[in-house]
Design a protein that fits this description.
About 20% of the residues lie in helices and about 40% in strands.
Length: about 260
């Protein structure tokens, strides 16, 4: 079984968010996919099988299968459009979040994702203890998005992972207005077995949607301020959808020989 390591939301290897992409003829067991994701120990390992209805894509963290992953979808489209369908400019994946369409435009891969209704919730002392800084606002959709007063607060915070697991939301996001980009964010995912996701595409279905409304902008240029860092180009669309684009860089191609 071929496995590709691709760094997403970057043009430089060893930055952005790494994903392992496995392209297979048939589905292995769920146990095998979970154990390989644990072995890779990346925020996501993606598994792809070409079926009669097209490519079927699934994502696994080291702890669980998830219903949506942005960077591993970008990395998957990079692999399919470069190694399996090099004459195509578009690929569709059947996923737990429905049909996802990704188009290649110059060096970027443009993904069309769902957005989620965001409702404002009270800022709590528990949030302040977990992040180490008190948010000025909090909204909750699929994930928690906490808004902070400054970019510096987001960049330098050292959250308590155990306390983060006690707060609502699959992922706990910290975001603020950026100095050079529209927004700067970090994404913490202890409930999914990931301390910090280097660049989280699915989180920006909410982060970019929030800042688009807050700033009155039709396009959001976002930066994720993890140690690896990465840039996302986001454009909210009609019908509760958002386009998220980014570059990708190939790091390795390997052969998985282990089996269960």
């Amino acid at each position: 079984m071929k496995q590709y390591i691709v760094d997403a939301f970057t043009s430089k290897p060893f930055s952005g968010n790494p994903a392992a992409i496995c392209v297979m003829e048939n589905w292995p067991s769920g146990e095998f996919m979970m154990k390989l994701a644990m072995e890779n120990n990346l925020s996501e390992t993606a598994f792809i099988v070409k079926e009669a209805a097209g490519y079927h894509l699934r994502w696994f963290t080291p702890a669980t299968e998830v219903e949506l992953c942005g960077h591993a979808t970008l990395a998957s489209s990079f692999v399919i459009l470069n190694f399996y369908e090099p004459d195509s400019e578009m690929v569709q994946f059947n996923t737990l979040s429905g049909i996802l369409t990704i188009r290649r435009k110059d060096n970027l891969f443009e993904m069309n994702f769902p957005t989620y209704e965001l409702r404002e919730i009270p800022v709590t002392d528990a949030m302040e203890r977990a992040f180490g800084v008190r948010p000025i606002k909090a909204v909750l959709g699929l994930d928690l998005v906490c808004i902070f007063e400054s970019e510096d607060q987001v960049r330098t915070m050292q959250p308590d992972q155990a306390l983060l697991t006690q707060i609502d939301g699959r992922i706990q996001n910290a975001t603020a207005r950026g100095k050079e980009t529209d927004c700067v964010s970090r994404s913490f995912c202890p409930k999914l077995g990931i301390a910090e996701d280097p660049v989280c595409g699915s989180a920006h279905c909410q982060i970019a949607d929030y800042w688009s409304k807050e700033l009155g902008k039709k396009q959001i240029y976002a930066y994720q301020a993890s140690k690896r860092g990465g840039y996302l180009y986001c454009r909210p669309e009609e019908n509760n959808r958002i386009t998220i684009s980014g570059d990708a860089a190939l790091v390795a191609v390997t052969e998985i020989v282990a089996a269960l």
